[in-house]
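Input record (one chain):
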Amino acid sequence: MKKIILTLLLALGSMTIEAQELTWHTDVNKASEIAIKTKKPLFFFFTGSDWCGWCIKLQREVFKTPEFTKWANENVVLVDLDFPRRKQLSPELTKQNNELQAMFGVRGFPTVWMVTPTMVDKKVSFAKLGSTGYVAGGPEKWLAVANQILANKK
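The corresponding structure, as predicted from the sequence alone:
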């Protein structure tokens, strides 16, 4: 019995470690530079991290899974655009997030936009690939929708 419990704990621990190997950027300019260099689209995650139940559910069911970690590391540059109610963001970060929310017409949370950044005269512009929100069914269903959006890049 102890061996079974130990094996389960090790398996869960390794999945947790793998799921935490994601880099979420908050500075869109830095993330854009990385995306341009790596030729990957940006993954804008508009979230209310400390109040939005659906955002928390999407994180728990999809973003913190090994399947998403593998997919994200291979396909996108992650950007966390947070709109918290209890946590205070810097004025610069709040301004950036509000401007992007307006630019992409985000009215509800969670919203994910995938975009291709381009740099012209030291100014970043974004070509929209598509957007989604919470999709029921776990990582497989959510990633199927995400892959359909990424197909627009081709």
